[in-house]
Amino acid sequence: MVVDTLLITATITPFSSFVVLSSSVARKKQYYDALYYILKNSSFNKIIVCENSEGWGHEAFWIDLAATYNKEIEFITHNHAMSANKSKGYMECELINYAVQNSKILRQGVTCFYKLTGRLIVKNINKILSFHHEDENVFILAGLSSRDSLDTRFFKINVNLFTNYIYPYAYKICDEKGYYMEHLFHDVLNHKSQSSRYPSVKFCKQTFRCLPEVIGTSGSTGLPYNVGVLRNFIRRIIFKLGLYKV
């Protein structure tokens, strides 16, 4: 049986000035709605939820619900005290790293996992999984105007790559200077070592074979990701032309 593992990152009560959607009540509802969607509709076998503010809540209910869908779920809470004054992207990397180091599921011989920003839903998630069972390090560009950055809302990554080649450089992320998590992932995966900032190692990477259909609300801007029909049609054409290739 093919096993696909998903890591969901969550911050119910944000502590970054770069977050517009700051209501913990609204954020929790979005997190819960998204997790319910994943449990009910996705073919993920194993799910890790890592939260770094007040804890997820009602874990026993979610564990029982996951079991009804034949899924294993694990909840991890990370104390953010050491990172509360860091950039939003740094805290996201720290949260992923904490999950990698502490998850029982990820210690079960898992070499790759998908990561999803927890309040979002990927409508075509199962189609994506069917394409990439055997692949690792799967991304798309953040956008046509952001060719120096990768979309880090949803991606698949090798544990070793993240632990040994991305997380050690997370301290370079600086929201105030416009160098985000998306830039770091792009630079490491594309071995941007001209300035000796990153190791000159070539990594196997793939572009998603279909455009992830992400719906939800951006925490940074408060704006919805689910754009209109016409714009989605245009994005799919652009994707088929290979312009989102990593």
In the CATH hierarchy, the architecture is Alpha-Beta Complex
Which percent range describes the beta-strand content?
15-25%
| Tally of distinct domains | 1
Radius of gyration: 17 Å
Strand order of the largest sheet: 3-2-1-4-7
Assembly state (oligomeric):
single chain
Alpha-beta classification: alpha/beta
Q: Count up the helices.
A: 7
Regarding CATH, which class? Answer: Alpha Beta
Q: What distance lies between the first and last C-alpha atoms, to the nearest angstrom?
A: 29 Å
What are the low-pLDDT stretches, counting only 5+ consecutive residues below 50? Answer: none
Structure notes:
This protein is α/β, with parallel strands linked by helices and 246 residues long. It has one domain: Spore Coat Polysaccharide Biosynthesis Protein SpsA, Chain A, CATH 3.90.550.10. 32% of the residues lie in helices and 15% in strands. The protein contains 7 helices and 9 strands. The longest helix has 18 residues, at 24-41. The radius of gyration is 17 Å and the shape is globular. The model has no long low-confidence stretch (mean pLDDT 86).
Secondary-structure map:
Layout: E1 5-10, H1 24-41, E2 46-51, H2 59-68, E3 72-77, H3 88-102, E4 112-117, E5 121-122, H4 125-131, E6 138-139, E7 154-158, H5 159-166, H6 181-189, E8 206-207, E9 214-215, H7 229-240
Parallel strand pairs: 1-2, 1-4, 2-3, 6-8
Antiparallel strand pairs: 4-7, 5-9
Could you give a quick summary of the protein structure above?
This protein is 32% helix and 15% strand. It is α/β, with parallel strands linked by helices and 246 residues long.
